[in-house]
Structures are given as C-alpha cells and as structure tokens.
Amino acid sequence: MRRKKLVGMLLVSTMIATMLAGCGDKGTQPAETSVGDTEENGVKEFTAFFGVAGSEINDDNEVQQIIAEKTGAKVKETWLTGQTADEAIGTMIAGGEYPDFIEGQTGTQQLYEAGALVALDDYLDDYPNIKNLFTDLQWEQLRQEDGHIYWIPQFSCIKNEEKVCTHNDEAFWIQARVLKWAGYPEVKTMDQYFDLIEAYNEANPTMEDGTENIPYTILCEDWRYFCLENAPQFLDGYPNDGSCMVDPETLTVLDYNTSDTAVKYFRKLNEEYQKGIVDPESFTQTYDEYISKLSTGRVLGMIDQWWDFAYTAGDALKQAGLDKQGCDYIPLPITIDESVSNQWHNSGGAFNAGSGLAITVSCQDVPGALQFVNDLLDQDIHNLRFWGVEGVDYQVDENGEFYRTEEQRTRSSDTDYKASHSCSYSYFPQYNGTSDDGINANKPDGQAKEFFDGLNDDVKETFQAYGVETYVEMLGTNEAPGEWYPMWSFSNNFTTSTPGGLAWTKIGEVKHEQLPQVVMADDFDSAWANYMDVYNECKPQDFLSELQDELDRRMEQAAQFK
User: Fold this and answer.
1) What is the pLDDT of residues 526-548, one digit of tens each?
2) In the CATH hierarchy, which fold is given to the domain comprising 170-345+449-475?
3) For a FRET experiment, which of 115, 157, 264, 411 has its CA 20 to 30 Å from that of 419?
4) Which CATH class is domain 2-163+350-439?
5) Handedness of CA 371, 373, 379, 380 (dihedral sign)
6) Are 109 and 370 in contact (CB under 8 A)?
7) Which pTM was predicted?
C-alpha cells in the first residue's frame, strides 16, 4: 500500500539527499529543557547538528516518513554553514543550548570538556544493535579520562564479510579522458603523474566547448588543507595516520613534514606552479568554488578524499553529461618512486575513537534517542536508509540480489530527488559489509555487480583497459598496519591545554600560511628554508612526543585484550 502511494508521488515530485550526526555528556543528567525531542502524531521529533557541510532534506521526505512510521521517531538535521566546527560548537557552549544529537568533529573535545554530553555507559546494554557495533577493545578505546563513553563512531563498522568497491579515502585523481588520450599508461610515480597532465593539457588545452582546462587544482580552505599538506606520507608508502607516519617495525612516530619526500613533493608543486599547471586560485578558493570547478569538468587532476567531492561534483558531472567527455575521476597509486609500494587503501576501515554521534544534556529523552539509533541499525531500516524502497529505488532478482535499473540509478544521483525521497541519516551509525541475508552489501557502492553496472561509461572503459572492476583494484589494498591505527583519531582532538596540542595548533597555522608561499615562490630553496625555520619554532617535538606516548598506550591497551 505504502509502495503504491510512493510510486504515485514519484510521478509528480522531485528530490535530494541527506545526512546526520551527534554528541554526548560528561556524566551529567539531561537538562529539563530541550531544543528538540518534541512529539507530533505519535512520532518523536529529535534535532541534530553535524559539524560538517551537508545537504538538508525536505520536511516531507518520503523515506524519512517511512522510517518514522516504523521507528516512531524522526530527526531534523542541521549542517555546518559559514563557520568552522570549532566556532559553531563554541557558540553553542556559550549559549548553553544544544540539539538532541550532535557530531562535533574537531569541536568534540570542547563539548566533552564543557559537560555538554551525556555519558552512555549505563545505557549500552539495553540497546544490542549499538552494543554490537564494536568489540570490547573498541568500546574501551572510546572511554575518556573520566572513565565514561560519550559518543558512537558512525563509519567504522563492517558487518559480516567486507564488501568494498569505492576508495573512500585520499588519492591522486585524474580524469578518464587524460588516461584514454595517453593510451591508458601505467602511472605510478609523482613525476609520471604530472608529466601526463602537462602533456595532455599542452595537446588539449580546452574542453569540447572551448572552455579552458585547469590542469591541477588544490583545495586548502580551513581543515581541508589536507589536500595540500599530507601527501608526503602516502608518497613514502605509508597509510593515512593523518598527523604523522608510524614505522611498523620500530613503532616509532615519524614526522612527514620534514622528510626528504616532503621536500621533493613541494618542489614539484612549485615547479608545476611556475609552469602554469597548478591553478593560481588554489590558495584563495573556497570549498564551494572548488566543487564548482570540478563540476564543470575543467579540472584534470587533484588530490582529495573521495567523500569530499564524489557526492557533489560527481553527481553534477553525470547530470551535465560530462561523463561522455571523460570527465570522471580515477584514482592512481602514486608514490615518490617505483621502489615504494603504495598504501593508499587499507581494508577493514579505520576506527575513529576521537569523535562520533553523541547525545547532549539538552535531550529530554535519552532512552528514546538511543532507541532511535538502535532502530536505525535494524537490517530492514538500514536497507531503507541506503538502498531505499524495493520496487521504487531498487529491484530484487531471482537469487535475492539487489540491483537498480538505469532509471533508478539516474534518480539516485539527482539532487532534487534525493532531497524529497532519500533519507540515509548519513551521520548516524551505519554498517558497511554484508547484510544479514548473506547476499547483499549493506550499501549499493559495495555491491560489486550493481556498482560496475552503475558506473559511467568513461569509468567502465578505463577499468576495462586496466583489467579492474573497482576503484580499490586500481590502487590495490593493504591490511591495517597495526593496533595503533589511525593516529588522527587522537590528534584531531588536540587542544592547546598540552604542550603537544599547542605545538600542533601552531604547526597548523604555520602550514596554512607558509605552504602556499612555498608553492608560489620564485626561489623554492629560500622559501623552504624559511618555512622550516618557522616550523621548528613551533616545537614539533612536543607534538611528536605526545603522539608517541599515545601510540605506546594504544599498543599496551590492545595487548590486554589479546
């Protein structure tokens, strides 16, 4: 019945996607007043704020209504706009009012220290879906210094067998048209990558309509400056520990900012800037301007995390038909030289103990909020979140395998359709891996056949040329390097209350200021020497020492659970 109603509505309506997040309290009890958790028509209505940019959904979103009917609850999501996460969280703390759920990102530690979050320890046993998300060791890793757990990581749980087709992390990306023009060459080193972009742009300076290409651009705005600064660790064959490299043999923290590879990488960017290959607007453009450039198909290559551009620029390219010109992006396994094995992609996910979905002290119904999170992890609700409505958003074949028709795939990337119909609650806890039915992936991008069938023709052609079927296969995959991984789950929550945190803050400020100057400098050697002088004044050893202490602590903790 409900399905028939949906089908009818689909004939007259269009729509866009969604997301959500949360946060917790420092052992305090929920406040007597709340900015959310009202009830209408028997459905509890909670509020949520996420410290990242995201897309809001329509109030009458169809799948959200179905989930509300099944769970008895819904959430009004709000996303970060016009501020940093720290600024937005600071404003909330100053006012003393919070949404029911919060995902503070870099402001998570502020929330904890302000006593804004509800301790979850006494509740977890009553919500088995939540409790079963993580191992005992992982729950222990979430305990703060006061002995309590305040947030639930959303993205690191693999249920049953891992199924992954998309590389969701960082890489050197290049357009399919560039690879096709060059005859699909093996591109494995930094020099080979930039040589190819240079050659293509010289031979093809414009798109088909005469629009001038942007050979290579860099996103540097706010916290996204990782697109500029952390490539040396990957080029040296290390995985994404974010703030450092870790020698797996000696378990020693290493500084990628001062490595020989860092010098070679920034010297290369400087050379490419002087040649006009690096976008001169790289260091002043906003995130929105960056996404707009990618969405036009003009940008031949960049470093970025998949999630940072694929769900915006990727959908825009498809809707504009630019995939027909080969404007989709392909990841390449780039290292500093061919003797280095790449570790761009690791299996098993990365457990981020540093932030997650929390419940605030403003929430008047903590059990109800947790029940909603628990319900979202039921398999049928999880299918609604990520696959949609059977017969409307996907089909089921005679073997029980989910798939989409071409029309359904097209709708799934349409922003208007997603706003009115889709509701993934994307910043709430979720599963990757395999459904309870043992057949289907928990998300469409993990369903190998559906994934490949849904690829744009330029990506399919590229994959076939290289003998692969997924983005992961383009890069290869590795096991997570060790129990410490990833170190960014610790450093992301640094505050200036410790010498290491103070050093880390100063280092970030220096890199923001100095690295663009290094790339644009007429005299690279002088600019780099000046950068190193200023960098060393930040006392990086204080930062590295605290990272080493944390690494040692993690290894000792893991040993207790073996």
Assistant:
1) 999 999 999 999 999 999 999 99
2) D-Maltodextrin-Binding Protein; domain 2 (3.40.190)
3) 157
4) alpha beta
5) positive
6) no
7) 0.82
